[in-house]
């Protein structure tokens, strides 16, 4: 949600990919792709954003904390990032999502959005459940 120099962003993508592979992720056993090359992520985020009210997003603690740490009013990208996360989850009809404690509320938002969408348009998205990571 913070502007990056294009060259730095490209290098970060390569570095992140290298780190994922170095951790042992086997590309022969899983799909590894760059989210920004899949337009359906942004398209679904737009649709879901039209079903999500702003007061709900403003109550998320991550919004409040990051906005305060940036010493600003915050950006629309920061505010709507949880909707993009919901789109990332729901696009693949995920049923279980590994999350840390700090992301539980964002997953609850994804659950609420899925339920709202299903109520309005018919059963389409499974309601994902959290798999809490234990560190």
TrEMBL record:
One of its GO terms (cellular component) is mitochondrial matrix. Keywords: Aminoacyl-tRNA synthetase, ATP-binding, Ligase, Nucleotide-binding, Protein biosynthesis. InterPro entries: aa-tRNA-synth_Ic, Rossmann-like_a/b/a_fold, Trp-tRNA-ligase, Trp-tRNA_synthetase. Gene3D superfamilies: HUPs. Pfam families: tRNA-synt_1b. GO terms for molecular function: ATP binding; tryptophan-tRNA ligase activity. One of its GO terms (biological process) is mitochondrial tryptophanyl-tRNA aminoacylation. Its EC number is 6.1.1.2. Belongs to the class-I aminoacyl-tRNA synthetase family. This is tryptophan--tRNA ligase. It comes from Myiagra hebetior.
């Amino acid at each position: 949600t913070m502007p990056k120099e294009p060259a730095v962003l490209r290098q970060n993508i390569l570095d992140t990919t290298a780190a994922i592979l170095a951790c042992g992720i086997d590309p022969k056993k899983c799909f590894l792709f760059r989210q920004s090359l899949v337009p359906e992520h942004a398209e679904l985020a737009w649709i879901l954003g039209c079903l999500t009210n702003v007061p709900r997003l403003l109550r998320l603690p991550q919004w409040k904390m990051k906005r305060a740490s940036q010493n600003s009013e915050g950006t629309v990208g920061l505010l709507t990032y949880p909707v993009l996360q919901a789109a990332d989850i729901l696009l693949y009809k995920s049923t279980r999502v590994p999350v840390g404690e700090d992301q539980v509320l964002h997953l609850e938002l994804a659950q609420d959005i899925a339920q709202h969408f299903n109520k309005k348009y018919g059963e389409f998205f499974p309601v994902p459940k959290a798999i809490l990571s234990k560190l």
